[in-house]
């Protein structure tokens, strides 16, 4: 296993990580950029498979030209090493100010011989992004129920529509580009159900409208999606969501219900709608497992706390993008640039600091308008699956929490097995935490805290022993 | 100020089983727990029931366990565990699939033969198999295994169910549980003790200190310094896989203990030291120990190599200088008893009986006079 010192190590090759790499290079730093996938771009700039690449790739992508420019710059800069297929599985932070050791397996995840590497960086920038959060409801695990992100990936990456009569439900502006992608791949979108009501949407989006002028590009992007929706006569319902999906082999219909301000269904407002696919997305959660491993402080919502220079609570560790708050690509690009410049020991441009502040305010509007409300906990029935990997139901978790004196998150997780599967709680972690917290935890905690960031084969791990430090006496 | 017969300090598996047994004998009991019940060593252990002689030395352990002295205790604990579920009326996932203890070197073989003799002396049925016979019985064993002993009584229980079940059973008999209540003072008052916590004082005749890694500082509150120190060891667990390993596998000369739990995950431990011990939060597992432990595991059980590691964690245990358990009355502190040290999970039901007998003034169900805290005392007040 090779050990390699470097100046700035960036983990995550999406918009935030690429922007950070570019700024750190501009500041004269030597940069290593680690990306787990087989191409830069992250979730936002997702690619067509190599075999089907064509000239129309930019059609479904926002800021595609900017992506190409940055990618080219990084590729051509001798100070930048881009490592694709790089899976960070652990980070050791030694005492006494030494460089942290970032352990990486390089190669396809299911490949036989991945190359173990260890980087010893002076600074780390985490740009590991976020992932969709889907709230459980009866039938959410039926075939035909997709996360909006999966539907978007199929549309962007494979040009495949998930169904013919599709309903899009959840919360937040991300539902809109999904509608656009579905329409462009030939699906009929029968409606969009936004869980937040008009009152909350107005509070988030219409207060202090003069501030929104600064985020014209963002508003323009959303406006484009809205125009397309209107053009295709897709009805948009606020304060409404899917609270159940029904079907034998796959989804055949859904139950829609009006929601109150806390997202509790209003009695008497339920109605059935026939569909052959549903796309749901209730928001995004940050992928903080690595940041937590090195000890970064997070806020009450689980986002990493950073200062004006994107510094975390841990010395020489920075975060950019969705890790610090869900704000979309513009915020990620700005935060990345600030983190990269600062990590290289230079001052970030004043204009980008200003942009970051503007887009952060935009992110706060997003939270005000669309943030998840606790009433979702009334949607699942006792038999509704909570953790799909381990097949644990909401009812089982509540029963164990009520029956046991061991009111710690960890022991409840281990007793119920919720969050213990191969996804390591990434899908159900926050839902499990919230359900258990409402049962009154004595010892809360975060399911994202784990010393092994991703599952790695024992053979590969055992092989790292040869070049580890000397045997402890 | 409240008054009870016995204050038990620590709601781990030992405190829970002792509190239950004492309540059953008619004593009023309060359990004071600094944090959440069953969270530290008792919630982080693999939950093995070690009946055949164990590997005598954790990696990094200075002194070996005295296996010969241990074996009669293990036999008694084995018998005791066979009635625990019926007694509590709860399913604790007690399983006795048996276990192999493997040997690779000449030295391992010597140890294996010697301990098998001792096991027969105390009535533990073990069988010595040569490498090929062992591989015929358990085909996943690797080529480096030269011999193995088979003990049909080895097994495990679910450590997340056992402690809480004893606590619940105790509470049905009137045991009071106070979680989040650290003991800050331990004063001798007349015939008994005054136990102080941030929320008040409890007066009692007996104090049972089953606080695991906190045994030493708590006994020090009563003016007695015991030579014990907490260490943290770590465990590793793979993804769930179809049945692969029907029994326990341990190594006589190396820190290695492997089993596949009911859910299908393979649990790998063997007492490897954690990176750091943190008694205020969760201790940090060491990548170095992880790699070392996993390398042993895949040498003995090569098919494990392709399984993925899902999680690892570290938990504390209370170590004594001679690596033997500590149980009994603290000399010079009448009415103060301690129980803890190595293999507390295996010994939990047995130690509960011993402690209850000591409080009642009855003869001990098993001779543990040589395991008392007197041997660990640095100087009494």
Automatic annotation (TrEMBL), chain A:
Name the keywords, alphabetized: Oxidoreductase
InterPro entries attached to this UniProt entry: BFD-like_2Fe2S-bd_dom (IPR007419), BFD-like_2Fe2S-bd_dom_sf (IPR041854), FAD/NAD-bd_sf (IPR036188), FAD/NAD-binding_dom (IPR023753), Metab_Enz_Cyan_OpOx_G3PDH (IPR051691), Opine_Oxase_asu/HCN_bsu (IPR017224)
- Domain spans labelled BFD-like [2Fe-2S]-binding: 386-437
Gene3D superfamilies, alphabetized? BFD-like [2Fe-2S]-binding domain, FAD/NAD(P)-binding domain
GO molecular function list: oxidoreductase activity
What Pfam families does this protein's entry cite?
Fer2_BFD (PF04324), Pyr_redox_2 (PF07992)
FAD/NAD(P)-binding domain location is 7-333
Domain of life of the source:
Bacteria
Name of the protein this chain belongs to: FAD-dependent oxidoreductase
UniProtKB/TrEMBL annotation, chain B:
Listed transmembrane segments: none
| UniProt keyword Oxidoreductase, yes or no | yes
Q: List UniProt keywords, sorted A-Z.
A: Oxidoreductase
Ranges for domain FAD dependent oxidoreductase come to 5-357
Q: Which InterPro entries match?
A: FAD-dep_OxRdtase (IPR006076), FAD/NAD-bd_sf (IPR036188)
Gene3D superfamilies per the UniProt record, alphabetical: D-Amino Acid Oxidase, subunit A, domain 2, FAD/NAD(P)-binding domain
Cited Pfam families: DAO
According to the record, the signal peptide region is none
User: What protein does this entry describe?
Assistant: FAD-binding oxidoreductase
| Organism, as annotated | Kineosporia babensis
């Amino acid at each position: 296993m090779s050990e390699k010192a470097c100046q700035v190590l960036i983990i995550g090759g999406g918009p935030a990580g690429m922007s950070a790499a570019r700024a750190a290079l501009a500041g004269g730093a030597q940069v290593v950029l680690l990306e787990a996938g087989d191409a830069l771009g992250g979730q936002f700039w997702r690619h067509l498979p190599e075999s089907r690449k064509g000239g129309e790739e930019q059609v479904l992508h926002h800021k595609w030209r900017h992506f190409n420019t940055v990618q080219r710059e990084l590729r051509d800069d001798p100070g930048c090493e881009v490592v694709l297929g790089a899976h960070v599985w652990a980070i050791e932070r030694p005492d006494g100010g030494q460089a942290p050791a970032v352990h990486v397996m390089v190669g396809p995840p299911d490949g036989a011989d991945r190359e173990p590497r260890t980087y010893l960086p002076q600074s780390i920038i985490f740009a590991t992004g976020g992932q969709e959060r889907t709230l459980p409801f009866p039938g959410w695990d039926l075939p035909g129920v997709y996360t909006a992100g999966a539907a978007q990936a199929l549309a962007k990456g494979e040009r495949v529509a998930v169904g013919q009569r599709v309903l899009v439900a959840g919360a937040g502006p991300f539902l809109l580009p999904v509608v656009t992608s579905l329409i462009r791949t030939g699906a009929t979108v029968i409606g969009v159900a936004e869980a937040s009501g008009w009152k909350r949407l107005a509070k988030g989006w219409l207060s202090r409208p003069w501030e929104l002028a600064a985020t014209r590009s963002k508003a323009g992007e959303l406006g484009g999606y809205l125009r397309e929706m209107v053009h295709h006569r897709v009805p948009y319902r606020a304060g409404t969501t899917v609270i159940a999906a029904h079907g034998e082999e796959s989804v055949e219909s859904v139950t829609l219900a009006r929601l109150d301000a806390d997202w509790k269904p209003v009695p008497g407002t339920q109605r059935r709608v026939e569909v052959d696919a549903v796309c749901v997305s209730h928001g995004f959660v940050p992928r903080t497992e690595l940041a937590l491993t090195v000890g970064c402080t997070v806020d009450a919502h689980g986002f990493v706390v950073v200062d004006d220079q994107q510094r975390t609570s841990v010395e020489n560790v920075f975060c950019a993008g969705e890790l610090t708050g869900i704000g979309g690509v513009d915020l990620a690009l700005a935060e990345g640039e600030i983190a990269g410049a600062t990590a290289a020991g230079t001052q970030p441009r004043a204009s980008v600091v200003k942009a970051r502040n503007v887009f952060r305010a935009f992110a706060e509007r997003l939270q005000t308008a669309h943030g998840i409300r606790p009433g979702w906990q009334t949607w699942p029935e006792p038999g509704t699956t909570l953790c799909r990997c381990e097949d644990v139901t909401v009812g089982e978790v509540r029963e164990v929490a009520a029956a046991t004196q061991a009111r710690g998150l960890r022991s409840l997780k281990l007793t119920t097995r919720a969050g213990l599967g191969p996804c390591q709680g990434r899908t159900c972690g926050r839902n499990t935490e919230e359900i258990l917290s409402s049962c009154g935890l004595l010892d809360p905690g975060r399911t994202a805290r784990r010393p092994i960031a991703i599952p790695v084969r024992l053979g590969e791990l055992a092989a790292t022993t040869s070049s580890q430090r000397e045997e402890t006496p | 100020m409240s008054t009870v017969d016995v204050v038990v300090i620590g709601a781990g598996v030992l405190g829970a089983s002792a509190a239950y047994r004492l309540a059953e004998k008619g004593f009023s009991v309060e359990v004071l727990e600094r944090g959440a019940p069953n969270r530290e060593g008792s919630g982080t252990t693999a939950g093995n029931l070690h009946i055949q002689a164990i590997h005598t030395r954790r990696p990094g352990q200075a002194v070996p366990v005295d296996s010969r002295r241990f074996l009669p205790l293990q036999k008694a604990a084995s018998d005791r565990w066979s009635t625990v579920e019926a007694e509590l009326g709860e399913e604790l996932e007690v399983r006795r699939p048996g276990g192999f203890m493997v040997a690779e070197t000449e030295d391992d073989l010597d140890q294996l033969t010697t301990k098998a003799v001792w096991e027969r002396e105390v009535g533990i049925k073990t069988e010595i198999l040569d490498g090929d016979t062992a591989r015929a019985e358990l085909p996943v064993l690797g080529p480096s295994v030269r011999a193995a002993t088979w003990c049909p009584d080895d097994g495990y229980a679910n450590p997340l169910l056992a402690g809480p079940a004893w606590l619940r059973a105790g509470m049905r008999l009137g045991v009071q549980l106070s979680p989040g209540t650290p003991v800050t003072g331990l004063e001798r008052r007349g015939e008994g003790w005054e136990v102080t916590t941030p929320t008040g004082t409890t007066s009692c005749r007996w104090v049972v200190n089953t606080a695991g890694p906190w045994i030493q500082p708590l006994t020090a509150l009563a003016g007695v310094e015991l030579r014990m120190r907490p260490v943290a060891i770590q465990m590793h667990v793979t993804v769930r896989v179809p049945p692969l390993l029907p029994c326990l596998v341990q190594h006589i000369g190396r820190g290695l203990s492997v089993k596949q739990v009911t859910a299908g995950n393979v649990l790998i431990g063997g007492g490897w030291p954690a990176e750091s011990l943190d008694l205020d939060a969760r201790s940090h597992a060491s990548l170095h120990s992880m790699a070392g432990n996993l390398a042993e595991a895949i040498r003995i059980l090569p098919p494990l190599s392709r399984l993925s590691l899902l999680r690892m964690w570290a938990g504390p245990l209370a170590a004594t200088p001679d690596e033997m358990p500590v149980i009994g009355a603290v000399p010079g502190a009448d009415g103060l008893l301690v129980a803890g040290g190595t293999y507390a999970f295996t010994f939990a039901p047995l130690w509960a009986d011993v402690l209850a007998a000591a409080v009642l003034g009855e003869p001990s169900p098993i001779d543990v006079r040589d395991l008392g805290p007197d041997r660990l005392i640095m100087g009494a007040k």
